[in-house]
Amino acid sequence: MAWLPPAAIVVMLIAAMTVQGMVAMIAPWLVLIGIIAYLYSRTRSLRTLERRVVQMQELAMLRHYPAAMRCAWDLMPPVVTIASMHGRVLAVLGHCLDQSRAYESAIVVYDGLIEQLPPRHPGAVQLRIHRAIAQLQCNQLLDADNTLRELRGITHLIRDTATGAALRLAQLIQQVRTHHFADAVGSSQTLVDALRPLGVEAAYGHALMALSFTQVDDEGAEQEAWRWWSRATLLMPATALVDRFEQLDRLATGATGQQGLGQEPIA
Amino acid sequence: MMQASASKPSADDGAAEQAHARAQCPPFRPSAFRRQLVVDSALWWLFKIIMVVVFCYALFQTEADKQPDAALSLIFIVFVGFWLVYSLISARVAREIPHITELIETDDDEAESMLATALRRKPLQYAVRLLLYHRLAVLRLRHRRYDEVACVCGELLSRQLGAAKSVEAHLLLMMAESSLQMRDHWGAWQALARLHGHRLNLMQALQRLALQTRYEVEAGLDAAALQGLNQKIEMSELMPAGQCGSMHAMLALAAQRSKLADQADWLRRRAELLCAAEQLQPLVGAEPVTA
Question: Does residue A15 register a pLDDT over 90?
Fold first, then answer.
C-alpha cells in the first residue's frame, strides 16, 4: 500500500500535462489533498497505536499483569500488520502470562516470538532463556534441558549482562528442580556477582540457593541457608518469593521463627 | 624507487584518513547549526517565491485568455515537483533516524557516520534537522562528552521545537545529566525544574527520579532526598540493576548524613547486593542514565 500515494501523484502529473478541460484542472488538486489527508490520518493512527503499546509496556513493568494482558489482547488486531509493534505486544503478553504462572501459554507465545528472530539475535537468546525457565516451572524438564544445553555455547558472549544472569538463574532453577542440590551449592561462591545484573529479581536465585543449602548435609549448611535467605528477603518480600517458587514455603515458614531473619523490614 | 613505494601507501593512507574524517561529525558549534537552519529556511522561502511567481504568471495567462488550462497545469506540476524534492530529502533522512537510534546502542562509529552524512543534506525540514541533532546529543552522551551534550541540548531547548516537541523531555533529561556530570548544579536545577512541567512516560519518570535524587544528595538536600523513601525505593526497583544500586547508595548516604543509622544500613546492604564494590561510587563518574 505504501506505493499508492506516489503512484497517484505520478498519474495525476501525467494527466495534468496531457488532458485539457475543467476536470483536468481540478482533479489533480483533489487527489493531492486526498493524499495529504490520508498520510496525516495514517500518521495519527500510528502515533495512537504507539502510545497504547507504551502504556501496555508500562503496565507490565509496574506488575499490573491482568491490565497489561487486557491491553495486549485489545492491541493485537490493529498491530498485526506492523511487525515491530506486533513483536512488542507478543513479548509483553508472554511476560505477563509467565508472571501469572500460566507457563504453558507463555511457552506458546515465546515459541512464536523465537521463530520470528534469527537464532543468535540477543532478543532470541533472552526469550529462549525465559522459555526454559517457564518449561522448568511446568515440569517440561527435558525441553528445558535441551534449550539450556544449546545456550551453553554462548555463555562467554553474555557474561556480566542481564541475559547472562538470567541464564545463570535458569541453570540454578534446573539444579533445584532436578534435585542436584550439591551442584547448586558448589557454585555458590560466584552466584551473587553472577545474578547482580538481574536487580531485585536476583532474590529468586538467593532464595533457591538457600533452599539448596537446606538439602545438603554439609557442616554449617544451615547457617549458610539462612544467610542466603536473609539476602533474598533483603531484596524481595518472602511472600513474593513463595508466590513464584512454592517449594520456598518451608523456608519462609521456618524463617518467621528465626530471630533477625525472615522478611527484612523496609526502611 | 624507495620513495615511490613509500609515497603510494601514504597517499592511500591519506585517502583512508580523509574518508574517516568525512565520517565524523565535527564538534558542535551553535553558529554552524544556526547557519544550517538559515540555509534550510532560505531554500523553503525560495520555493514559496517561485510558487508565487508561477501563480502570477498563470493568472496573467488566464486573464489574457491565452492558455488557462496549461497555466493551471503548470502550477500543479511546479508545486508537486518542488514539494516532492523538498519532502523526499527529509523523508529519506527521517526514515534513517530509527536506524541511527538503534546503531547508537550497538555501533557508535556507524551511527556517527550516518549522522554526519544526514546532517550535511539540505534542505531538511526544521523538525527533521532538530531530531538529527537530538540523536547527536544522545551519541555524545554515550561518548561522555558532557560539555558538547549540554551545548547541543541548550541550543535546541532555546528554540521552538515544533513537530520535534516529543524529544523535549529527553533533551531536558540529558541536559540535567550532563550538567550534573560537569558539576553545574544551577544548570541541573533549571533542567529538572522544567521537567516538572512535563508529562513523562514511566522510563523518563525513572530517569528524572535518579537525576533529582543525585542532585539533592550532591547539593546536600538530604531531607528532600529521603522524602517519600518507600515510594522512591519501589520506583528504583524498576530501574536497571546498576542504576537501582546507585540510587540505594545515594539514599544511604543521605540517611547516614541525616543520622538515620538503621535506614542507612538497610539501604547500604541492598546497594551492596545490587552493585559491585567498584560501582558503589554514586557521586563520581556515574553511568549515564538517559542514553
Answer: no
Contact list in A for residue B273 (CB cut-off 8 A) is 192, 196, 202, 231, 234-235
Q: Where are the alpha helices (DSSP H) in chain A?
A: 4-18, 22-61, 65-79, 83-99, 103-116, 122-137, 141-151, 162-177, 181-186, 191-195, 202-214, 221-235, 238-244, 249-255
Do A200 and B269 lie within an 8 Å CB cutoff?
no
- Residue B203: closest C-alpha in chain A: A58
The C-alpha cell that represents A36 in the structure block:
495529504
Mutate which of B273, B278, B280, B287 to test chain A, going by most A C-beta atoms within 10 A? B273
Residue entry with cell 499490573: A64
Which tens digit of pLDDT belongs to each residue from A115-145? 988 877 888 899 999 999 999 999 899 999 9
Contact A13 B77 (CB under 8 A): yes
Domain ranges for chain B:
202-284
**CA distance to A156, A166, A167, A194, B287, per residue, from A161 (Å):** 10, 9, 10, 9, 15
Contact B109, B140 (CB under 8 A): no
Q: Select from B80, B237, B273 the Cβ nearest to the Cβ of A192.
A: B273
- The shortest C-alpha distance from A12 to chain B (Å) reads 9
C-alpha gyration radius of chain B: 26
For B241, which of A12, A16, A197 is closest by C-beta distance? A197
Q: Determine contact, residues A50/A85, Cβ cutoff 8 Å.
A: yes
Neighbours of B71 (CB within 10 A): 20
Q: Count CB-CB contacts under 10 A for residue A95.
A: 22
Complex ipTM more than 0.90, yes or no: no
User: pLDDT digit string (tens) for B111-149?
Assistant: 999 999 999 888 888 999 999 999 999 999 999 999 999
A196 chain-B contacts, CB cut-off 8 A: 241, 273-276
